[in-house]
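Worked example 3. Consider a protein that binds zinc ion.
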Amino acid sequence: MFDVTYILVIIGAVICMIASARVNSTYSKYARIQSSAGMTGAQAAQCILERSGVTDVSVGHVSGNLTDHFDPSKMVVNLSDATYASTSVAAIGVAAHECGHVMQHHTGYAPLAFRAALVPIANIGSNMGLPMVILGLILGVGYTNSGALTFGGILCDIGIALFCFGVLFQLVTLPVEFDASSRGLKMLEQYNILNQNELPYSRAVLHAAAMTYVAAAASSILQMLRLLLLVSGGRRRSD
Ligand SMILES: [Zn+2]
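Given these inputs, the predicted complex is written out as structure tokens:
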């Protein structure tokens, strides 16, 4: 029998695919527009770090496409092939966003610390949550004769609770990402790296990138909803 709740998983996957296609097309559109100041992504990041008085973070090069990230364990802003040596408004926007994460780290931005604290349990939740619920459903989620939850029912509840931490992680990622972009854009303006005509282009790239995180969060909420529907359906059938 076809599991109708699987539709929620498919909707989530489609939302993520649309967001990912949009960020790729937006990036390649603005990767063709060169900034008038002519700085590369790496030079823009270096300039932002220097002008903001950050002396303990270096700028590095990492392979891949849009793999840019700030690594707080090594204190390095890693810029990808597409960003490091490019003078486009897209590359400079991404470089500034990563410097936004550096500023979050240096100013003790609370959602970033909370997100880092969630990593271990969120990883367990994303890996173990779904298998535990499925195993619980196979074992049976009804009640014993004395009215207590069966072993399968307990497994489902623990699996859903663990899965919730994965969802929470995705939700806390949203303010972290939006804030990094807004810090990055402010610094591009403040340090005259981009002019008023160029800033909206970088903003468009960062907005499209942020939408991939929104899509991922929406998709994991849909998956959680599916697990809840499966378990409550199983309990109703066993009544
Ligand atoms: Zn980011």
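Take a moment to read the result before moving on. The beta strands are 58-62, 69-71, 76-80. The first strand starts at residue 58 and ends at 62.
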